[in-house]
Amino acid sequence: MKAIMKYLLVMALTLACCAAWSFDFEEEFKKVLKDGVQKKIEEKSDAATSSALLGLVGISQEEEITIGRQIAGNLLGASALVKDQSLQVYVNNVGRWVANQSERPDLPWHFGVMESSDVNAFAAPGGYIFLTRGLYSLLQNEAELAGVLGHEIGHVIRKHHLKILQQSSLVDVGGKLISKRIGGNDKVQKLIGNGAEIVARSLDKNAEFEADRIAVVLAARAGYDAFALPEVLQQIGHFSKDDGSVALLFKTHPHPDDRLEKLGLAMNARLEDVKGKTLETRFYRIKP
Amino acid sequence: MSSIRLGIVLVSLMAMPAFAAETGRVIRSDEIKVEPFRDAKTTAMLSIGDKVEIVKKNGGWLQINSPKGKGWVHMLNVRKGEMRKDAGELGGLLSMASGRAGTGKVVATTGIRGLDEVELQAAKYNEAELSLVESYTKNRAEAQVFATQGKLVARKFDYLPSPDVSPK
Fold this sequence. Notes:
The complex is a heterodimer. Chain A has helices at 2-43, 47-57, 61-78, 85-100, 133-136, 142-157, 160-173, 176-179, 185-192, 205-221, 228-237, 247-252, 256-267; strands spanning 110-114, 121-124, 128-132.
């Protein structure tokens, strides 16, 4: 009886130790990886060096586009394009003009308005950018569209989603997948997870604030009113958190009020006297 | 007679939005300027929490009326509409209770699907739609033509540094 008790006690202690050790180790391991990647992102946040960072893990522009194309194809599987050719051409003109002002004007940029009542916009690597009909319907002029697209262009040029992919695949498969040349769609699909879930993931909130700052500067460079994106953010900020049409947007982004707060600190005194066009009359009104 | 009354009601209903001036609250103290420029003359000072009536927007500036004076203030120092009720830790609960703060702009939801995480995860690759979006692509030169048509001229600006100051 005593021997059995002792045996059980030893077993219990061993198990407890094992569990504690594996728990700590796993957490620690993840933390180290995460911190490492995060640090790299922070250190290399300017455009010139971000390509060098990606160079280290071997993603060429061609591979970036292949990954983005797969994500975009999946996203369009969730919701199709609004069947309005003039609208899509218009959005491509505005988006491309804004992207021309970035340090990656040579990417084959693609823009589209998707059929969804949600208020949201998505970016995939390589220059695939989408916004929903719900978001487009809130816009009042071309400068606001330029600001919204500029935010997504910001994610693409700073490779925010690619960094997430690298981070997660590092954790999942020790980085082997990413360092291999990416072949067909199956492999790319393995890399990006299920469907278009990558676009439903939250980026670091500093990546969102950075994309906002890029957006207003690209809009200003393109000749637009830089303060049009803040106008859109004010509108979105008026939605209630439990309004389903902004649920995913609010879940994956800092609250618009916080984004406006940060933009205010960054923009006031730097862009305050910069005027630009809003082009309200040219703005393509979406058919209801 | 009753149709005249109905007419008056209808006309006043239609005219209402024009009279309902948009209001806002000051979130950072700011000077009221006589013109929408940094170097314009300052006429008064607004404090955090001051209520203002918004007349119009001009770039980064809002023309406002307030008990402290009329003029122009930085757009990003004023929050339109009611202040956010869900700030802080009680956020979720309060926003549940308060419901939609409301711009009055409701996006039609009938018959059009949302795009939630479940749908995005389950999404199947659609080559036809992808080819369609790629068919609309504009190149650099085409976008330049489009810009010129809108009298948009490219300008040089540096990217903005991250504000290190915490908002709180």
